[in-house]
Design a protein that fits this description.
mainly alpha, Four Helix Bundle (Hemerythrin (Met), subunit A), elongated
């Protein structure tokens, strides 16, 4: 339960900061006099608000999985599998994918169509490489005698990495559509919103993956034990 609360507090803090940056908490009727301005001057784009809600739901889902992970690992039959080395490379690849999409955001805001197309394509290709690397990690574990049903720890490893991979696949659908629009010559001004949404989603999935990596590597349990010792 403490894991869920901490995760939700982090999500709430980030969401509040982001919404404050979007002036959602402002009172424009006080800033511009007694006349109520048009809706466009006050609010946050509906698509971005929807993305924030979606990311919050995804965050809660992974928080629940993480909580179940911690509760199950306390049972005596828990035997954590070794961490495949390729996960380090996969993590770097996902970081590069997120960096590429941030580059696409910067390019589309400057109206640089060529760099936008290149950055979007790079983000998609590196995401595919990440998924391929995850499959390699699964095959390595299975070949080394750590199949899905051999131990609860194995099941959680496949579950967590598989759920994250499915969200990457879902993101690739939207990213592919945005990339296709860019390569078809659509103007950067009309692509700006879609590119920003893709980058938001990708950055969030990177944070989720880093959290999962810490979890399956066994560092999270050590960190919690240290915190408990400091608070006791």
């Amino acid at each position: 339960m403490s894991v869920i609360l901490v995760f939700l507090l982090v999500i709430a803090g980030v969401s509040f900061w982001w919404l404050s940056q979007q002036r959602l908490m402002s009172k424009p009727w006080l800033e511009h006099g007694d006349v109520l301005p048009e809706l466009e001057t006050t609010g946050i784009p509906t698509a971005k608000l929807g993305m924030v809600v979606l990311l919050a739901v995804i965050g809660c889902l992974f928080a629940l999985f993480s909580s179940a992970f911690f509760m199950r690992m306390a049972v005596s039959d828990w035997q954590a599998p070794p961490l495949p080395r390729i996960l380090w490379l996969n993590s770097l690849i996902l970081v590069l994918s997120s960096v590429a999409l941030q580059g696409a955001v910067s390019a589309v805001r400057k109206g640089d169509a060529g760099t936008t197309r290149l950055a979007l394509a790079t983000g998609g290709l590196t995401a595919l490489a990440f998924l391929a690397g995850q499959l390699v990690a699964w095959r390595e574990l299975a070949a080394d005698g750590y199949p899905l049903t051999a131990n609860p720890a194995n099941s959680f490893f496949y579950l967590l990495t598989g759920m994250h991979g499915l969200h990457i696949v879902a993101g690739l659908v939207g990213l592919s559509a945005t990339t296709a629009r860019a390569w078809q010559g659509e103007r950067p001004e009309s692509l700006k919103s879609a590119v920003e949404l893709c980058a938001m989603y990708w950055h969030f999935l990177l944070l989720v993956w880093l959290g999962l990596f810490v979890l399956i590597a066994g560092w999270a349990a050590s960190f919690i034990d240290i915190c408990r010792q400091l608070l006791s």
